[in-house]
Amino acid sequence: MDSPLVVPELAAGETFLLRPWRLADAVVVEEASTDPYIPLITTVPSRYSAEEGAAFIRRQWSRSIDRVGYSFAIADAGSGRAVGQIGLWPGAYGRATVGYWVTASVRGRGVAAAALLAVSAWGLERLRIPRLELHVEPWNEPSWKTAERAGFVREGLLRGWQEIGGERRDMYVYSKLPGDLT
Questions:
Q1: CA distance 45 to 31
Q2: Which of 59, 115, 128, 154 sits at 20 to 30 Å (Cα–Cα) from 175?
């Protein structure tokens, strides 16, 4: 059997840290579960309970155990409090997908951009992944602006790309290549 992937700790700017999930991070899962959008596009439970919060965290651990990818808690570097999630999911043909969310209480502080810069530099430089991709709904301007601030390039619109909330939705596709590192 292959050994599990190792989820490291990565600095994300001066004030945030990417790290493995801890059971104590259930409080951020609870906050995310009240968001109208996060549970639609992630495995965050839409109805929170302590059991569901722990199950979410265990699923994040299983990603590396099963060699599916790297799921990081985005945490405040000073307090250690988790404020969101970012994942890097290696796939076929030298590509990996990146996804992220942050709770409403920290939006607008550059948290997602700092996390995306850190995980993309790590994936491109350390893991030597030739191409990172992410998908964002066109209406989600804060998320696609985050991608652009982190050096991702919009390549186009994928019509009917993904089912969300029971309907097919269009997605912008963004990429970042080793030559795009800033």
A1: 10
A2: 59
CATH code of the domain in which 54 resides:
3.40.630.30
Residues sharing a CB contact under 8 Å with residue 49, sequence separation 6 or more, in sequence order: none
Total-model pTM: 0.93
Q: Which residues have CB under 8 Å from 28's CB, separation 6+?
A: 73, 81, 82, 83, 84, 103
Q: Answer whether residue 125 is part of any domain.
A: yes
Q: For residue 150, what is the DSSP state?
A: T
Counts for the chain of helices (H) and strands (E), in that order: 5, 8
Dist. CA 123–CA 180, nearest whole Å: 13
Residue 1 falls within a domain, yes or no? no
- Span 7-66, pLDDT tens digits: 999 999 999 999 999 999 999 999 999 998 888 888 899 999 999 999 999 999 999 999
What one-character DSSP code corresponds to residue 98? E
Rounded CA-CA distance 181/165 in Å is 34
The span from the CA of 18 to the CA of 80, in Å, is: 10
Domain region containing 118: 10-180
Instruction: Provide the domain count of the chain.
Output: 1
**Tokens describing residue 2:** 């292959």
pLDDT tens sequence across 50-102: 999 999 999 999 999 999 999 999 999 999 999 999 999 999 999 999 999 99
CB distance 147 to 175 below 8 Å: no
